[in-house]
Amino acid sequence: MAQGNMINNDNSNWMKKFIPIWSAQVFSLLGSGLVQFALVWYLTKETGSATILAMATFVALIPDVLLAPFAGALVDRWNRRLVMILADGSIAVITLGLALLFAFDKVQIWHIFVVLFLREAGAVFHWPAMQSSTSLMVPDKHLARVAGINQALRGGLSIIAPPLGALLMSLLAFYQVIAIDIVTALIAITPLFFIRIPQPVRKGSDSEININIVLKDTAEGLKFVKAWPGILMLGLVAAFINFVLAPFSTFLPLLVTQHFSKGVWELSLLESCIGFGVVGGGLLLGVWGGFKKRILTSMVGVIGLGVGVLLVGLAPSTAFFLAVIGVTIIGLMNPIANGPLQAIMQSKIPPEMQGRVMSLITSICTAMMPISMLVSAPVANSLGLRFWYWMGGLVTIIMGIAAMMNPRIMKIEEKTFDNENTVIAVN
Fold first, then answer.
1. Which of 4, 305, 317, 347 has its CA 20 to 30 A from that of 262?
2. Fold exhibited by the domain 13-197+205-415
């Protein structure tokens, strides 16, 4: 049993702390969704280039690959509440700078690239801090359901953000739309000033932070992952799936405008349908909880993702409704694929290791995505946008089936660790 279970199972008032923090994140996610939608549409209309959109995604992924393992090590030593405050606050300041550039008509494409990089760098610290704090506040038996509800929440915001973004862009100046994220970030930060988040007990003190300590902590995280072959193999599978699926959302605006000959409202419809699907899948997972074997639930979701992507790619230009069905399936399967994995890590990884281990796994999973952005743009330009959707869907289905046939992956939940974070049982 992970140490985190012993910390939070006795906390009968966990909702009083968790719900205010969790609720405030709704506003931050909404603001981020508005900014994301607005910037993608701006780049699409200004350039119409698959290369530019791929480069924007590439730049935004760099922090996840290069900074995530070290960020996780720091999060495990720092006060996680303070990390979230500083991360959200930094993102708000960066967004303010971009809004001012748009307000004075000084913005250039490279400005947007820099902002995307810096915003994601802040998120790299915020995500492990929030996820590792969740396992200390939420009882283990509720983790899968909370993960499902989180996915439903993100799906709901995905429904709202695209049409709201399209509406706001028709009513407000572009810089005003961007500036909304500043307000939502401040709302997200406010509860963190008043609610104490439990901190795991670990060796050493927070003052013992230097480059050698960070590298040592990062190495400990890598050692932990290597001692858990199932999670390492699953990370490699996810990295390969991310390679083929990363261009899906990047090229979606171009698929809408160039293949279906549609506009911003149709793009917002597709993204909202993804959100509807995520809400449905998240609520289903929240109520059902998935199969007893959580990894099985996840792999079923992965196969479903491949089916949805393949359907979008097969939709002819006169059958936009097939793309709508495809993206809805993708949304539905997203929480089914990701929610159980999150619950497995939160319940199995000791609290004092969660920041660096989760960040390291995230880094492994996203390592192939920047390469995908570099490879997919010339492929899409030469073979067409739809080719990548066909390939991505088929490969994802095959990888999901292959993972279900791999004993180490399917027994990933049968690993336990002692107080020194070494393996003590594999059933």
1. 305
2. Growth Hormone; Chain: A; (1.20.1250)
